[in-house]
Each structure stands twice: as C-alpha cells, then as structure tokens.
C-alpha cells in the first residue's frame, strides 16, 4: 500500500476549509499552531480570528501590552502559550527586523515552540521535509503499524518521529503533514472510529487484531492534586472592589484575580471570616461575609482540580485601592473567575 498517496487522496476529499490552510504566511500559521496546542479546532478558530483582527502583523502583536494579549486569550487556558507568543513576537520584531525564521533549526529556538510546531511551520511555509508528531499522528501510526511503545516518553517520540520522517513526501511535505494530522483528527479518532470506511483497514494491525481501543499506549498519568480556593469578592459603598495580579510563576502568571485564600480542606464560614479579617483591605468591624455558591465550583486542570467558593464581603466606607465595578470585566482573568464575573454582573 502507498501510505503517502492514500493519505493525500483522502485529505483532498475530506479536508476542512480552515483559514490558516489558505496561506503560507509564517505569522498566521505560527499563530494558529500556538492556539491549537492543547485546543480543538472548533474552540481555537474564533480566537485565531480575533488575534488576526486585533494584531494583523507580528509588529502589532509585539507592540501590544501583555495584559491585552492575555485578555484576548482568556478562556483558552494554558496561558503560558500567550505569554510565549507575545515574547517571541517582540523578539522577531526587534531582533530579526520582523522577518520570521525560515528553517526548523531556527524556528524551534523561539520561546514556546517545540518539535511539532517548528515542523509544522517549516513544512507549511517553507516546504521543509520535517515530519509533524502530534496526538493524531501518534494515534494513526500506532494503530496502523501496531506499535505498543508508550507515546508519553522520549523513546516513543524518537520511534514515531523516525517512522513519520521516513514516510513524509519529499516533493510536498506540507500536504503530507496536513493529511496525516487531518486523518487522525477526523477518521482515526480517539474513540469509536468508523473503521468500515477507513482506506487503511485492510492493512491496519490494530483493526485486524481488534485492538483499536488499546492504541496508542500512554503511561499512567500523574495523580491529580486537589486544592481548595476561596476567592474574596469585596464590595464597597462606592461600588469598587479589589482585583490583584498574580505574581510569581504558574499557569495563571500575570492574570488577575480577587484576593485568594487557599486552604488544605474545604473552608467553613469561621475559617474564611478569620482570614478576611487578617486582610489589609478592610476594617474588620465594618464587614459582612456571605457565601455566594454553596456548592464548590470544580475547575479541572491537567495536574490539579480546584474546588472553589466565592465569598462576598460587604464593607462600609471606601477602598483606597478599589477598582470600579465597571472596570472589572476588562481585566484578563482565568476562565474560572471570568465565569463568575459574567454571572455576578458587576
């Protein structure tokens, strides 16, 4: 079987019409690939459109405030992608005079760019023969060849990269890379793929052995930590509240939040009241505390689950560092807080 021809023939008939497939502009393709890391196309498409509209060139993105970039990114998660995108845009604009790197070896040096993204850009924009390896490619190759090497390790990556690199078309590597990813995304899907219409079923090892659901092999995931977050939403007489920027490293670095009290277990009224009184924002004798949501809002991240309550603190007087209610929705915040802000209707 000619795997390359079969993939490309399937792709020509079944490919989705996506805006970044109608250009070889490296800025547009880089932007799309960063957005689509850890993100499905349906969710990422409106963000791509917004970024292209707000920042049509790499210079526009480089000149933007990080806070504005994070706000536009809000809801996509994995915010380090946005910070790295902004940092790399500034590097390209200032150090490279706005000229995007043109080879895999140079592209991969950009902050936030790994082997997959560098391979995608190098092949799509410059027709470099470098194979992409993502979840879709792992899935197709592992099933077709019957490979049981775990994909969640360096050994697996090297093995699958070598196979894909051996398969990639010399004449048109861009189309081959698009085809194998699209095939994995739309035909060789993670769950219940329709193998009856698959052009590879007669040669697919996993299909012949009835082991489609066994591949690809992933190592056992790390234990997810449970954390308890208590956000303190302070409401003053002059319609202001407290919003503060997260400091230090972390997935929500430089995003904004209400004052946070983190506890080892679910906090009760007395625990939160004591902690609120220790804050410097309010006079303890003038506050009233109430619980906004009696049931925890569970926000699931890849490595931790956040059991979250929002507590409303009403205070007499004003807040010297207060933010007007109508300004609260303008801050870039984690989607967990963004949903609260929308429902609370400041």
Automatic annotation (TrEMBL):
Enzyme class: hydrolase
EC number: 3.2.2.31
Reactions catalysed according to its record: Hydrolyzes free adenine bases from 7,8-dihydro-8-oxoguanine:adenine mismatched double-stranded DNA, leaving an apurinic site
Keyword Isomerase recorded: no
Gene Ontology molecular functions: 4 iron, 4 sulfur cluster binding; 8-oxo-7,8-dihydroguanine DNA N-glycosylase activity; adenine/guanine mispair binding; metal ion binding; oxidized purine DNA binding; purine-specific mismatch base pair DNA N-glycosylase activity
GO biological process terms held by the UniProt record: base-excision repair; mismatch repair
Database matches in InterPro entries: A/G_AdeGlyc_MutY, DNA_glycosylase, HhH-GPD_domain, HhH_base_excis_C, HhH_motif, MIG/MutY, MutY_C, NUDIX_hydrolase-like_dom_sf
Family stated for the protein in its record: Belongs to the Nth/MutY family.
Entries under NCBIfam families matching the protein: mutY (TIGR01084)
Protein name: Adenine DNA glycosylase
Highest classification ranks of the organism: Bacteria, Pseudomonadati, Bacteroidota, Flavobacteriia, Flavobacteriales
Gene giving rise to this polypeptide: mutY
């Amino acid at each position: 079987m000619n795997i390359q021809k079969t993939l490309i023939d399937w792709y020509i008939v079944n490919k989705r019409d996506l805006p970044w497939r109608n250009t070889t502009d490296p800025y547009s393709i880089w932007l799309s690939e960063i957005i689509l890391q850890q993100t499905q196309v349906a969710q990422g498409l409106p963000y791509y459109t917004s970024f292209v509209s707000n920042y049509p060139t790499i210079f526009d993105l480089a000149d933007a405030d990080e806070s504005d970039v994070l706000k536009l990114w809000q809801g996509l998660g994995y915010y380090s992608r946005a910070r790295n995108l902004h940092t790399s845009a500034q590097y390209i604009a200032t150090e490279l005079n706005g000229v995007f790197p043109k080879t895999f070896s140079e592209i991969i040096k950009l902050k936030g760019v790994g082997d997959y993204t560098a391979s995608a850009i190098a092949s799509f924009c410059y027709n470099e023969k470098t194979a992409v390896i993502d979840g879709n490619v792992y899935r197709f190759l592992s099933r077709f060849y019957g490979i049981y090497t775990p994909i969640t390790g360096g050994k697996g990556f090297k093995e699958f990269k070598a196979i894909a690199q051996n398969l990639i078309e010399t004449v048109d590597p861009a189309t081959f890379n698009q085809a194998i990813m699209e095939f994995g995304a739309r035909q060789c899907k993670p769950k219940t793929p329709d193998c009856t219409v698959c052009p590879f079923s007669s040669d697919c090892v996993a299909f012949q052995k009835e082991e489609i659901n066994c591949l690809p092999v992933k190592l056992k995931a790390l234990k997810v930590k449970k954390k308890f977050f208590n956000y303190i939403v302070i409401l003053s007489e002059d319609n202001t509240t407290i919003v503060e920027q997260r400091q230090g490293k972390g997935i929500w670095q430089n995003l904004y939040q209400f004052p946070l009290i983190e506890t080892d277990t679910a906090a009760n009224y007395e625990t939160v009241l004591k902690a609120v009184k220790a804050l410097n924002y309010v006079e303890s004798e003038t506050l009233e505390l109430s619980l906004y949501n009696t049931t925890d809002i569970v926000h699931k991240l890849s490595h931790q689950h956040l059991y979250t309550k929002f507590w409303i603190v009403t205070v007499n007087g004003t807040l010297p560092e207060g933010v007007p209610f109508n300004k609260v929705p303008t801050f870039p915040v984690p989607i967990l807080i963004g949903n609260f802000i929308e429902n609370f209707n400041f």
